[in-house]
Amino acid sequence: MPERGSGPTGDSVAQRLRRTQERFEPLVTRVILGGIFVTGLVAQFVKPVGDAIQGKAYLGGALLSLVGYVLYDAVKELSTSTRQPVRALVGSSELGGFVSEAFKARKVEISFLGYTGETLYNELYHRLRALSDAPGQVRDVTVRMLVPDFEQPMTVPARVGPDGQHVDDPAFRARLLQRCEEYEGALSDIADQISRTTRTEVRCEYRFYPGIPGQKVCIFNRVQVLHGFYDLSARMRLQRTGPEYYDPKGYTTDLNVCSPGTAATDPVVTMWNKHFDDLWALASVPSWRRSAAA
What we know:
Number of strands: 11
Strand order of the largest sheet: 1-11-8-7-2-3-6
Largest sheet: 7 strands, mixed
Strand content: 15-25%
Structural class: alpha+beta
Order of helices and strands: HHHEHEHEEEHEEEEEEHH
Distance between the termini: 34 Å
């Protein structure tokens, strides 16, 4: 959801003010330093001006101001040239850094859309275990995992049939379904423990969306989106001599990084947040939670 007061491009008021400040701050600083230099120089040679400001070392002060002006430009240029560039593409194995960064906030919200969520689950599990020992400033954590509805017949994942055809395999789907149930169970157990023993509230939940796992999306605190596409042609065998399965490999998926801060990226982040919220509202509850509720 866009921030209150956002414009047609998705920029929030705070973000527009920040960019305006960054644009005009260097100009204002240069004008002030330049004004000091010119005033000091004029005071050296024009007596009325010198008397007016009651200064004596005008030329020295003016030269010092000029040095400050030059150094300011040099430092600004050095800062710009050494600033670390934002990486546009990362591997799924690098999700740990994004998870750790998200947990620096007081309110943490992590959303996932993809296959089983295994790569993200591993990072979340260890981060939540650490949180149970030292919550720090974190007071609220919400983890939402959207995975395909493995309870329904599927094209991918599926068994590789004659001529490479996709053949639905209930046993293989049941294996993936059990894996997701185990992931949610482990995360929920830690979440319950943290909520009982600390001042931090933690919620972790899996839901199902219909269709094949074509895209992998991770949203961190609603301000940073990682997005990539699974290789739907990837195959694997459970046993060396067993049948092949179409099984997307999440850990090999490269992800595009989209963060707020520019007119080009802010609307994309807003779009992905809305898209995920809409899918989450339409998603179905897994059978293991329906059974527990009954």
